[in-house]
Amino acid sequence: MPITHISLPCLGQGLRVSSSPFRFTELARRMTSIANKSVGPNPTIHLFLDFDGTLTEKDTLHLVAHAGYDLQQRNNRLPPPTPWIDIVDAYTADYKAHSESYSPAKAQRSTIHQEIAWLRSLQEVEEASAQRVFAAGVFDNLSYSEIINAVDNSLSSQNVRMRNGWNDLLSCINNHNTGPGIQQSSPSIEILSVNWSASFVERVIIQSACSEHVDYKHTTLNTTSNTIPQPPWLSNLKVYANEIPSINPPSPSRINAVPMRTSGDKVRQFHACCSPFVNTTTRSIYIGDSTTDLECLVAADTGICIRDDPSGSSQQDLAETCERMGIQVSRISRKEGLDRVSGRLWWARDFVEVKEWIEDIIEG
């Protein structure tokens, strides 16, 4: 899992790949199958979203780490945890050494087969990084209440900001899936994240959804209180991410703690979530911002890349990777719907654009 703001591509197994090599012709068949899939009347929409840099404007991994360091300092932990900069430097050194020894080099990788092979080879680098963080004691005895405090502080200081239009998009999807004319059970809204803590991800979403219009600089909120209404889509939300072992979130919970280090982990969970709806008219939409999302983006019926202006480093990496592999990424267009996705992905600035596009589709 990348542990800095620098985007380091992390794709593992995916796209229903087993031990046999995945070739571009397989992607072409997959995209053709998607293009030929009939949208049908009132299809339900199975929405998947990445968290860091997609739902949020910036990565939040460092904020979870900060909560750990803050706890260790208050507890006077001896010896103190390894400094974060040392952990980052070790990860960067591992990545650089592996990259320099790997063949073919980045410039020579032009197919999905080659890119997945390279990204799959990073599994040991990612696992070593995670083990290094836990061995350093950064998250020792970190509790759910500490996560709540970290989220509250991050939102009040605006260190976490949700992307424009996110709440309206989720409400739009939920209203459509539970509205009249829908003939099948409604899929969940799924969050797939490589964040350190699923509890952190869930808490940010709950707090932001319930209190989006409250001035965080002057208000302290308690979302366990019945005085703050919750949007209906929250009851249909599921979060899949890593979890710090010492954290025990309350039950019932939307949290699904699963290993999530690479895009291969993400795409396996994506297929597991989609499996109940394989023989239905449900359409899957995946929205992400980095190469960690690439496999899910091409596996979904519709893949949408988030791009800021100017683009962030992870967004640039994803765009450059798609270009090298010959995958067209088109500006989202209200003239073209879910049935026109053959051989390409889409990109949008924010969720306002995505919502308008989806509304045109479900209303038209």
Essential attributes:
Rossmann fold, 364 residues, alpha/beta, 13 helices, 8 strands, single chain, 8-stranded parallel beta sheet
Secondary-structure map with pairings?
Layout: H1 24-36, E1 45-49, H2 51-55, H3 61-74, H4 84-101, H5 112-120, H6 123-135, H7 144-156, H8 166-177, E2 189-192, H9 198-210, E3 237-241, E4 255-257, H10 263-274, E5 283-288, H11 294-299, E6 302-306, H12 313-325, E7 328-331, E8 344-348, H13 351-363
Parallel strand pairs: 1-2, 1-5, 2-3, 3-4, 5-6, 6-8, 7-8
Helix pairs in contact: 3-7, 4-6, 7-9, 8-13
3D structure, described in words:
This protein is α/β, with parallel strands linked by helices and 364 residues long. The chain has 13 helices and eight strands. It has helices at residues 24-36, 51-55, 61-74, 84-101, 112-120, 123-135, 144-156, 166-177, 198-210, 263-274, 294-299, 313-325, 351-363; strands at 45-49, 189-192, 237-241, 255-257, 283-288, 302-306, 328-331, 344-348. Strands 4-3-2-1-5-6-8-7 form an eight-stranded parallel sheet, sandwiched between helices. The protein is globular and about 60 Å long.
